[in-house]
Amino acid sequence: MATELDRPxxxxxxxxxxxxxxxxxxxxxxxxxxxxRGARRGRGSQNAxxxxxxxRRWRYLLVVPGLLGMLVGVSxxxxxxxxxxxxxxxxxADWLRANHAGWLxxxxxxxxxxxxxxxxxxxxxxxxxVPGTVAVGPAGxxxxxxxxxxSSAAGPTSSPPSSxxxxxxxxxxxxxxxxxxxxxxxxxTTLAPTTTTQAPTTTTRPGLxxxxxxxxxxxxxxxxxxxxxxxxxxxxxxPAMYVAQFRADRIYTSEITSAVWMDPKLLxxxxxxxxxxxxxxxxxxxxxxxxxxxxxxxxxxxxxLFSNAKGGIYMEGKVGVPLVKGAASFVIYKDGQVNVGxxxxxxxxxxxxxxxxxxxxxxxxxxHIAPSATYTDNAIWGYTxxxxxxxxxxxxxxxxxxxxxxxxxxxxxxxxxxxxLSRAGAVRAMTLDMNPYWVTFNFYSHVPGHPLEVTGSKxxxxxxxxxxRYLPPVLEARDFFEVLLPGAPxxx
Length: 492
Prior knowledge:
Blueprint: H1 43-80, H2 88-98, H3 102-116, E1 133-136, E2 142-144, E3 229-235, E4 238-246, E5 257-262, E6 268-272, E7 296-301, H4 306-309, E8 313-315, E9 318-321, E10 328-333, E11 338-342, E12 353-358, E13 364-365, E14 368-369, E15 391-399, E16 404-412, H5 414-423, E17 426-434, E18 441-447, E19 450-458, E20 480-484
């Protein structure tokens, strides 16, 4: 029997239980990493680097909405603390544009415009109602005349102070068939039988001749379309204002454009500074004063923010914003006359100038429409809602005989505003403010015996601002124009 001493040395010792496999000897050869450092990366390291890159990109992407949110927050606070009687939305848009963020305002306005864009085609049921005329009698009395077709009855209005002469009636002289003791006969050189004549007495109409009808571009016409309807108080017995309503083009045929013709020989115009535009200190407060209320006939909007108007303002003998040569200028003279023209050539500074408001360049010049006034412009003629070309717009011009014409409508382009001013008789005209919140023309009526109790009515119903805009005690944010009866106090 063999013993342990007889077993080969290479054989393992016998133990109880299953036999374990031999262990794999440890590798002691050369190192794997024989190339340059970084030449070979494992898949795990590539995934880690990719994750780090995505995290870096996400950080950058999150910065943009963070900064945008910060801008919105700062702008909302800035708008909230801004003074003025305008809506929060309008304050916010103005703040953004004034602080180099007009692109953000444009995005929000685009959403608004897409919902409020005027419809194409269609036909309105009829013309809008406008106030009728009011015959002014002796101080303290007034009587309403019959309104023109298509207009509503005017509300009660107060008469002007007794220093304003009411309309006078004239009695025609009837010619006689024979001479009287105080009338010398007129004889012919042929010694024909003596005959006598007496020339009838004629009365010259005060003020300017009434305007001619507005040419129409849409057929069939609405009843009364294009015809001038007298409105407001009679001055010296004749209307001092007329309103005409018409369609501006053949596309937006359900929208009505309105024009107001005003006689500077029978009315007075005053430029009033706003609390914010132009700002500063002025003798006239930013609203209609109590002294002016008994004479107030109407009021309408001024121009753009002066940061966008490319023009200035002058009143009360001083410059609020520097006047610009070549800018379209609405000039009011101390003798009551008005003019619209290019500053430095057609209109100039002089001792007779009472006020000047500038806004862009002339829209109509010598009867010709500016070539840049197109149907699709959304930049040259002012900021529009989200770049939409068809928005509420307003403008003012002068006729060949010196009347003032204001035109506004809810669906106008730069082109159709210019065409409407021209069709309404303006030979030179300029754009005023635009977009729904800013276009305003209000008529004002008075309670008999209470000249300080004034009620407003809009030129057309789509105007967003209150019919009492410009009345005290609310401070108006932007400059505007008053239309007053003769004899109203002159401020400044």
